C-alpha cells in the first residue's frame, strides 16, 4: 500500500506500474482510476495516462480544499484478467514537518537527485512523520480522521484516538447524522474528547447525554493536530529522516539485530535499537519525549 500525504488544495501525480509474473506489463485497454472518501463518496475518476517506456501509468489528483483521507482504486485488464487494486491512500493534510528543499539541505549527499529521487524523499518524510505521531501519540500538523466507535448508554463522553481535536465535521449514531448545530456545539478539545450537551439524548434517562448501545454504531469524522510542529520536533524529525534515507540506500555490514560492535582500537561501540516508542537515536528520542500526548495514559 502506498500512503501519500498531499497539502490541502495541492495537486499531485499518482503513479503505478503493474506486474505480471514480476515483469512490468502494460494493461489491455484503459486504466481507470477512482478516488473516493472512506464513506464511499466519489471524489474524482478518470483514465490514467500511459504506459510510458517503463510501463508506468500516471494520474493527476486535482486536490481538495478540506482535510480528508481518500482511497485510490486502479481498475484494469492485464494478462486477460480484470484486476482492481485498492491499495493506495491519499491523506490531505494541513502541513508538513519540513519541505522537500529543506530535506535535501540536511546533507549535501541528498542533492543527488538520481540516487535520491523525489519519490523517495517524499516517501521517507511520510514515514518519519507517521512514526513521530505514533510515538508522541499526537499530530503536529492539521490532519483528518474517521473513526467507528461503540456506543453504550452509560457512556457520556467519547474518547477519540487523537488528542488536540480541532473540529468535528460529522457524527452519525445508528445511521442518523447530527445537525450542523449539534456539531458546532462540540467545539475543540485538547484531550480529544466529545462532550455533547444535555439536549442530545439518544438513549437513557434524559438528564444527560447518552449514547445508544451498539457495536460500531457511531461514526465520527474530525480534524485534529497542532497548527505547526515545535522547533525541536522539526529538528529531531530531520535527523530521523536522514537516518532512514541512508538506511534505504545503503547496506550496513551489521545485521539489523546487532546491539553492539566490538573493535580493538576504540573499544565497544553501543548501537541502540529502535522500539515501539523510540527511534534508537538519542537526540531524536529526547526531542520526541519532550512532546508527549496531552492526554493521560489512563481512562
Query: How many beta-strand runs?
Result: 17
Total of domains: 3
Structural class: alpha+beta
Shape: globular
Report the biggest beta sheet as strand number plus sense, adding barrel if it closes: 5 strands, mixed
User: What is the CA–CA distance across the termini?
Assistant: 33 Å
Helix content: 10-25%
Strand % is: 25-35%
Unreliable residue stretches: 198-208
- Helix and strand run: EEEEEEEEEHHEEEEHEEHEEH
Mean pLDDT: 88
Number of helices: 5
CA-based gyration radius: 23 Å
* Sheet with the most strands: spatial strand order: 1-9-8-5-6
Keywords:
alpha+beta; 299 residues; 19% helix; Immunoglobulin-like; 5-stranded mixed beta sheet; 5 helices
How would you concisely characterize the structure shown here?
By secondary structure, the protein is α+β, with helices and mostly antiparallel strands. The chain contains five helices and 17 strands. Strand 8 (68-78) and strand 9 form a beta hairpin.
Amino acid at each position: 500500500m502506498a500512503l501519500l500525504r498531499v497539502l490541502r488544495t495541492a495537486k499531485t501525480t499518482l503513479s503505478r506500474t503493474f506486474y505480471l509474473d514480476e515483469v512490468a506489463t502494460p494493461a489491455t485497454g484503459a486504466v481507470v482510476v477512482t478516488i473516493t472518501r472512506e464513506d464511499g463518496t466519489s471524489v474524482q475518476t478518470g483514465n490514467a495516462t500511459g504506459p510510458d517506456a517503463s510501463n508506468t501509468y500516471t494520474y493527476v489528483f486535482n486536490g481538495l480544499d478540506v482535510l480528508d483521507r481518500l482511497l485510490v482504486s486502479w481498475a484494469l485488464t492485464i494478462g486477460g484478467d480484470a484486476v482492481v487494486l485498492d491499495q493506495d491512500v491519499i491523506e490531505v493534510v494541513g502541513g508538513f514537518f519540513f519541505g522537500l528543499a529543506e530535506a535535501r539541505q540536511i546533507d549535501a549527499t541528498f542533492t543527488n537527485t538520481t540516487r535520491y529521487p523525489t519519490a523517495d524523499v517524499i516517501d521517507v518524510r511520510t514515514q518519519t512523520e507517521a512514526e513521530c505521531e505514533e510515538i508522541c501519540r499526537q499530530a503536529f500538523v492539521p490532519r483528518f480522521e474517521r473513526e467507528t466507535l461503540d456506543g453504550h448508554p452509560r457512556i457520556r463522553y467519547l474518547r477519540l484516538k487523537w488528542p488536540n481535536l480541532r473540529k468535528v465535521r460529522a457524527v452519525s449514531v445508528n445511521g442518523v447524522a447530527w445537525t450542523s448545530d449539534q456539531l458546532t456545539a462540540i467545539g475543540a478539545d485538547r484531550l480529544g474528547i466529545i462532550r455533547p450537551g444535555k439536549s442530545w439524548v439518544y438513549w437513557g434517562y434524559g438528564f444527560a447525554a447518552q449514547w445508544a448501545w451498539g457495536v460500531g454504531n457511531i461514526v465520527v469524522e474530525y480534524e485534529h493536530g497542532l497548527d505547526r510542529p515545535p522547533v525541536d520536533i522539526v529538528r529531531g524529525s530531520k535527523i530521523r529522516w536522514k537516518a532512514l534515507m541512508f538506511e534505504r540506500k545503503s547496506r550496513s555490514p551489521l545485521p539489523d539485530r546487532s546491539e553492539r560492535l566490538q573493535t580493538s582500537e576504540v573499544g565497544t561501540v553501543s548501537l541502540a535499537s529502535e522500539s515501539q516508542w523510540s527511534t534508537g537515536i538519542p537526540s531524536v528520542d529526547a526531542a520526541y519525549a519532550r512532546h508527549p500526548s496531552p492526554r493521560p495514559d489512563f481512562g
